[in-house]
Write a structure and sequence with these properties.
Helix content is about 30%, strand content about 30%. With about 350 residues, it is α/β, with parallel strands linked by helices.
């Protein structure tokens, strides 16, 4: 009888002890917020003071993933909106009784600069990557159709479609801010185009055109930049030009042109001596600039290619890779041009 009473006593004791030490899953995340200090941003997570955790932080080009292991069972926090316009969204997910995963997506590409952990918080610092500003000029438009192809199509339509598709591809990378001199079939004088281009304060200008020649067998792409200062013919007095600034901009333009023609053979045919010089007014913008002849619409093969989505995609990729290289972002897959 005594042994039975002892068994009952210890059973009750164990139940009471287990009840006393067991706790329901707890909300351990107190607050998630973003704060800005000068040009830097800090993503902060504050935790309950009685809960210890071990973090593993994985940074992404436009977001962050945090894996959290706690010393007790936890509940998944209720997501609350972070009131800042660069936050695309975030969420917590519970993937074990004592583990949480936190993911935040950002609207901009960023560079992470610091990760600080305290007993009750995580503070992740980053800065927003500056976007390069590019102007794309779709040649001709409206009452100025440009050259006419062997199939009856006009240069103005080919350049507009290519300009819009190039803009979309650049925006997709989230590294560029893009302006078009026109996004429909409208006419603008060269003076109006130049005013719009210079007002954009862009870092680079790409003017798109198609070529035409009496020799119907001539085909291929080419890229134009301005000539050397002593070769300018439309300026009687070049002494008024800041030669140091002129050659700096010209050097940048030619750097891009050489890089572009290095990619072009993977996409299509290029002309002999593809990097050319011409005193075109559109190239006299206050920024590095090139004029790209996408092909000869007077040639049957080039004319068909210029109407091909496959060809335009390859050409657009070549221009984008050249821009990435020009601005120092060489993390691209050039093999995809083949």
């Amino acid at each position: 009888m005594l042994s039975i009473l002892r068994i009952i006593f210890f059973a009750v004791f164990l139940l009471v002890t287990q009840s006393a030490y067991s706790e329901d899953p707890k909300q351990v995340v107190k607050k998630v917020y973003l704060k800005k200090e000068r040009e830097r941003y800090f993503l902060c997570i504050d935790f309950d003071e009685k809960t210890s955790f071990t973090p593993r932080v994985h940074t992404l080009p436009n977001g962050v993933k945090v894996l959290l292991s706690f010393n007790r069972e936890v509940a998944a926090p209720n997501a609350r909106k972070i009131s800042h316009n660069i936050i695309k969204g975030y969420f917590f997910e519970k993937f074990s009784p004592s583990s949480l995963m936190f993911i935040v997506a950002l609207k901009e590409n960023v560079t992470f600069i610091s990760k600080v952990y305290t007993k009750n918080s995580i503070k992740i610092g980053f800065s927003i990557n500056k976007k390069h500003i590019v102007v794309i000029d779709a040649g001709h438009g409206g009452k100025d159709p440009g050259t006419k192809g062997v199939s009856g199509s006009y240069e103005k339509n080919i350049t507009l479609v290519t300009a819009i598709e190039l803009r979309n591809e650049l925006l997709k990378s989230n590294r560029y801010k893009v302006f078009l001199t026109r996004d429909n079939d409208e006419f603008a004088t060269i003076e109006e185009r130049m005013e719009k281009i210079n007002a954009s304060k862009a870092n680079f200008l790409i003017s798109l055109h198609t070529d035409s020649n009496d020799d119907k067998n001539l085909r291929g792409m080419s890229v134009y930049t301005l000539p050397n200062l002593d070769k300018l013919k439309n300026i009687s007095d070049t002494s008024s030009i800041d030669s140091k600034s002129y050659y700096k901009t010209l050097s940048q333009s030619r750097k891009f042109a050489k890089c572009l023609v290095g990619y072009i053979p993977n996409a299509c045919r290029i002309k002999n001596r593809p990097c050319r010089n011409s005193e075109l007014k559109i190239l006299k913008a206050n920024m590095p600039a090139v004029l790209v002849e996408l092909g000869c619409i007077s040639n049957k093969i080039d004319n068909e290619l210029l109407h091909s989505q496959y060809f335009r995609t390859k050409t657009i990729c070549a221009i984008k890779y050249a821009l990435d290289n020009f601005f120092g972002d060489k993390k691209n897959e050039a093999d995809s041009l083949h």
